[in-house]
């Protein structure tokens, strides 16, 4: 069996999501402390292993439906490049390795990883076909990645952080489902054949969800920058500009039906990358200079 196919089945491109583990330590102004940086690295690798285990099991279960999808039919398991039995064994190895590695950081990280795995396995075997709940579970995956950074480094998570991360995650996930739905409809595919939960959604409903989530995300972030005491309040306020523009640009990506793979959509959009860099710099001036 070809090694490249096995690597592709792990979905390494999706590991970009795990960069969210730096969010809490960065926001706390402690990311570059040696012990904090080391534990953040542990959290990142642990989440890469855990998420890959989930992707493998998901692709084994979804292989028959994936073969009907214009793009997913090329996934290694759906296309027959990787045998389902091999994928299950690899998933178990990755899952055990993730749990073992997480014990090297703070004990709380292990519980975050376990919570992530339980929720995602429930999603794979049941909740992915339950409308609204499927959005909540996928959003929780983003949120738990952000919480993992705090858990691994014993950094307290503020209410503001939870609100921004939670509603921001819902915005991305609802946009993902919206893009999947409109793309499939445009290509004339049978929605229920590839993802049954999409049968319960309309594009207008999903647009409503990601619009509300985006509005709340900007609002709570704005409240944070004007209420949390900082030495450099101007830089903190300025960070609201690239943050808001970034959400608006990504909303345009969603509206065009290209938000089905958030990590790819972001990494291939120079405007989003530039706004992200400006946001990090403006916050960095406040937190580290």
How would you describe the overall organization of this protein?
By secondary structure, the protein is an all-alpha fold. The protein folds into two domains: 13-157, UbiA prenyltransferase (Tetracycline Repressor, domain 2), CATH 1.10.357.140; 158-289. Helices cover 72% and strands 0% of the residues. It has helices spanning 3-9, 23-27, 34-66, 84-102, 107-125, 133-153, 159-186, 191-194, 203-227, 233-238, 240-255, 262-267, 270-288. Helix 3 packs antiparallel against helix 6 (133-153). The longest helix has 33 residues, at 34-66. The radius of gyration is 19 Å and the shape is globular. The relative contact order is 0.11.
> Class of the largest domain, according to the CATH hierarchy?
Mainly Alpha
Chain-averaged pLDDT: 87
Largest sheet: none
Describe the global form: globular
SSE sequence, one letter per element: HHHHHHHHHHHHH
Helix content: over 70%
The DSSP helix count reads 13
Distance between the termini: 51 Å
* Residues in β-strands, percent: under 5%
Number of strands: 0
For the record, the count of structural domains works out to 2
Q: Mind telling me the C-alpha Rg?
A: 19 Å
Unreliable spans: none
CATH architecture type of the largest domain: Orthogonal Bundle
Instruction: Specify the structural class.
Output: mainly alpha
Q: Determine the CATH topology of the largest domain.
A: Tetracycline Repressor, domain 2
CATH H level, superfamily name of the largest domain: UbiA prenyltransferase
């Amino acid at each position: 069996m070809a090694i490249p196919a096995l690597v592709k089945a792990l979905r390494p491109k999706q590991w970009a999501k795990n960069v969210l583990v730096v969010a809490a330590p960065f926001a706390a102004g402690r990311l570059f402390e040696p012990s904090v940086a080391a534990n953040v690295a542990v959290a990142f690798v642990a989440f890469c292993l855990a998420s890959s285990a989930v992707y493998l099991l998901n692709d084994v279960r979804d292989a028959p439906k994936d073969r009907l999808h214009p793009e997913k039919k090329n996934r290694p398991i759906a296309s027959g490049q990787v045998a389902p039995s091999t994928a299950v064994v690899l998933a178990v190895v990755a899952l055990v390795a993730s749990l073992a590695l997480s014990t090297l950081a703070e004990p709380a990280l292990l519980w975050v990883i376990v919570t992530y795995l339980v929720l995602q396995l429930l999603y794979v075997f049941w909740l992915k076909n339950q409308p609204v709940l499927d959005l909540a579970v996928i959003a929780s995956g983003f949120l738990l990645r952000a919480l993992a950074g705090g858990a691994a480094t014993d950094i307290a998570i503020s209410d503001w952080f939870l609100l921004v991360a939670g509603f921001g995650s819902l915005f991305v996930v609802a946009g993902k489902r919206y893009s999947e739905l409109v793309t499939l409809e445009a290509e004339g595919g049978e929605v229920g054949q590839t993802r049954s939960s999409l049968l319960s959604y309309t594009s207008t409903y999903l647009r409503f969800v990601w619009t509300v989530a985006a509005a709340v995300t900007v609002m709570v972030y704005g409240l944070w920058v004007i209420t949390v005491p900082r030495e450099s309040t101007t830089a903190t306020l300025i960070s609201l500009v690239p943050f808001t523009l970034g959400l608006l640009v990504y909303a345009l990506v969603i509206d065009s039906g290209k938000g089905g793979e958030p990590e790819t959509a972001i990494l291939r959009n120079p405007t989003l990358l530039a706004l992200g860099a400006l946001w990090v710099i403006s916050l960095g001036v406040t937190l580290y200079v």
